[in-house]
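Appendix C. Worked example: 23S rRNA (Uracil(1939)-C(5))-methyltransferase RlmD
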Amino acid sequence: MKRYKQKKHKYEVLTQVRVEEMAAEGKCIVRHDNLVVFISDVAPGDVVDVRITKKRKNYLEGVPVHFHAYSEARTQPFCEHFGVCGGCKWQHIPYDTQLFYKQKQVNDNVERIGKITGHEMLPILPSDRVSFYRNKLEYTFSGNAWLTKEQIDSGEELERRALGFHIPLRFDKIVDIQHCYLQPAPSNEIRLAVKKYALDHNLPFFDLVRQEGYLRNLIIRTANTGDLMVIVQVFQDQMEWLQPLLNHLLQEFPQITSLHYVVNSKGNETFHDLEVVCYHGEPYIHEQMEGLRFRVGPKSFYQTNSEQAYNLYKLTRDFALLNGTETVYDLYTGAGTIANFVARKAAQVVGIEYVASAIEDAKINSQINDITNTHFYAGDMKDVLTHELFARHGRPDVIITDPPRAGMHPDVVTKLLEVKANRIVYVSCNPATQARDLEMLSELYDVVKIQPVDMFPQTYHVESVALLTLRG
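Step 2, the predicted output written as structure tokens:
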């Protein structure tokens, strides 16, 4: 490998680097001067020139600036927006290879971070669908679309109003999307229809930097029951603009069962603290799983890959080894999906979640399914898991925990070590933080087996389910 330096104000460039293997967060690595170099947007086997963008004490980061040879391990991306929108960073990697590296990621984290040994590592569970698998997408309007170098070099006068996705790491840059392979029909058709209507009627697209304009955001949720939710977010309360747009949507897409709008004059697009107005239909949609119906509102969380979520929950229930006599505590229960899913196999399920609105969703999901052996509480885990709660419902035989990406707070882990449930089933969307927590829990627990699950094909994200049993 050769090396040269450009002018002083330029970063160092490594030439003709052969990419070795995948690493964390979808980046690949090479080794140089006893340092690891993390490179984005390449594949193992590529030969590239790499410009160093960051220098750290123990590693470097870089980006490819020229490809000398492409890896035979590559495959042709199927989306015209690949490499620009950043949503499917692994489309150039064959699916079998994606699965291999996701499995390796879980295994490496367990061994290196968690220092766990003696467990069974089960083969990763693939997703049956590798495209059109999401039930929710969120699009952003912009009056100043991101242009690729090819578009700029074309010299053409291009439409700058966009409806699409954020460029990675840029809150203010939106790439206009023509066709997305993540969500089934009529997602693409609705997005294109909204954009055409807005252009035809000269509705102002929002400017995220100047905080001016009108159309801000479009959310589309499709359900496996056939229900369809659309949420239009605008900057100002101007019904003379909004009402004709909503009526147009209903005329063009009569299959919409739940149509909403949000007036959001804040500096960001989050609306969990704002009123969502149901303009047409029911104020929610339903997902179905093993005969259960789950109500999903505009602010509700639901796993975005419905089919694979069912497999994930079955796996979680199997790991829990329920025979109908156990008291199960479901931590970070969200809308109570797992809690209600396992309730028929348990004596009772106690769900705990810090988002109060999610707990209300969980209670409703029990009610509409005639489930009477669930109990839900809102609050911080370490504050809710008290002697008073144990006196009311008994100490847990099994704990299911499904924390956010940050994993469990150390105080929660300490509480679990005090509770000493016979079994813990740890569902994780971040193998690194799961491994960290498993190491702390290994003070009293043995990790019996771990099952990686692919919820998000074409990305580096992977879920992992671990079964722990109390020693002695």
